């Protein structure tokens, strides 16, 4: 079973018991932290008062895992065991220990929560990860997609008795995009500065600083979805953050090639392309962008690559960021 982190609190509220094995994983630290807090709190309500935390790594003594599950306190018959693996790699001994631990029947009266980042594409093929994914109730702690961020902010505000219009929430989301921890801090701050009720744009602008953290993946999604204003903002943000330009260019070029493959497959009536992880945004981009414009953009990216290496390209600006914004907006505005 898999539960999205934003839905976990409601799900736990409807549950009279907890599964023996849990896995909080993803790439959003705040959601992983809060998911662990929610599960731990619900376990305590259900009588799991004995708690033990194991901070593990690839070089840790993994024999602790089985020992911890077997040793329940003298005055408690229920235990909550947390296994934290911040590095995401258990090592050879850890991998075996996890598989052995999950292979036996759950110890009665013990709930175990594993918390770790989701492995890369190679790691998810490992036997220990497959065992975790199959045996545990999984809480997906991935970043909130930008289109869903205003609703996430609104839900957080509602807990403090505050609300805002859709336009104000969109403005708020622009200021905290890609930085959920900052978003939570700003929402908490607003609850202290203003009374319950509706917040105005002026309230937000006076109190919330620009703490957005932009990503290359966000840029690709914005291009695919035709969000030109967001494309411009993200590129400016990536440059201001000091993002390594060759990396930005490499990822964007790779994803445009994937779009070409997806578009070609769509025109041939095919729904699957081997070797392409087609996210909803990429699928939307492949439907929206024609092959002619995609191939033209790839040609421009080749020019930008030469510019970034200090070579002159006729009729192109010498600043690769300017050219990158130009071709990205060309794609975002294309129909």
If you average the pLDDT, what whole number results?
Answer: 90
Overall 3D form: globular
Total number of beta strands: 8
The CATH topology of the largest domain is given as Rossmann fold
Quick overview:
With 335 residues, this protein is α/β, with parallel strands linked by helices.
How would you describe this protein?
The protein is α/β, with parallel strands linked by helices and 335 residues long. Helices cover 55% and strands 12% of the residues. It has three domains: 2-141, P-loop containing nucleotide triphosphate hydrolases (Rossmann fold, 3-Layer(aba) Sandwich); 146-207, Helicase, Ruva Protein, domain 3; 216-332, Zinc Finger, Delta Prime, domain 3 (Up-down Bundle). The protein has a six-stranded parallel beta sheet, with helices on both faces. The longest helix is centred in the last third of the chain and has 23 residues, at 245-267.
Q: Can you give keywords for this protein?
A:
335 residues; alpha/beta; Rossmann fold; Helicase, Ruva Protein, domain 3; Zinc Finger, Delta Prime, domain 3; 3 domains; 6-stranded parallel beta sheet; two-stranded parallel ribbon; 15 helices; 8 strands; globular
């Amino acid at each position: 079973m898999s539960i999205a982190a934003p839905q976990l609190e409601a799900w736990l509220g409807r549950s009279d018991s907890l599964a023996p094995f849990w896995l909080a994983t993803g790439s959003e630290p705040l959601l992983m932290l809060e998911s662990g807090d929610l599960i731990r709190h619900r376990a305590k309500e259900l009588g799991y008062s004995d708690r033990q935390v194991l901070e593990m790594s690839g070089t840790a003594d993994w024999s602790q895992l089985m020992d911890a599950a077997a040793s329940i306190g003298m005055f408690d018959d229920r235990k909550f065991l947390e296994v934290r693996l911040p590095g995401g790699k258990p090592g050879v001994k850890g991998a075996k220990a996890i598989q052995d631990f999950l292979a036996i029947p759950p110890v009665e009266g013990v709930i175990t929560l594993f918390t770790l980042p989701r492995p890369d594409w190679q790691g998810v093929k490992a036997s220990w990860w497959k065992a975790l994914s199959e045996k545990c109730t999984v809480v997906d702690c991935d970043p909130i997609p930008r289109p869903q961020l205003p609703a996430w902010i609104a839900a957080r505000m509602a807990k403090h008795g505050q609300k805002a219009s859709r336009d104000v929430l969109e403005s708020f989301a622009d200021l905290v995009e890609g930085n959920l921890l900052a978003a939570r801090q700003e929402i908490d701050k607003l609850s202290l500065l203003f009374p319950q009720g509706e917040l105005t744009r002026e309230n937000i602008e006076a109190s919330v600083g620009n703490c957005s953290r932009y990503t290359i993946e966000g840029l690709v999604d914005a291009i695919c979805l035709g969000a030109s204003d967001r494309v411009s903002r993200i590129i400016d943000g990536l440059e201001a953050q000091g993002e390594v330009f060759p990396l930005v260019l490499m990822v964007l070029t790779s994803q445009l090639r994937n779009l070409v493959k997806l578009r070609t497959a769509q025109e041939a009536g095919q729904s699957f392309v081997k070797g392409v992880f087609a996210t909803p945004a990429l699928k939307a981009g492949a439907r929206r962008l024609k092959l002619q414009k995609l191939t033209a953009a790839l040609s421009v990216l080749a020019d930008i690559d030469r510019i970034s290496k200090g070579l002159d390209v006729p009729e192109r600006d010498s600043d690769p960021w300017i050219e990158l914004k130009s071709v990205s907006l060309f794609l975002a505005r294309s129909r």
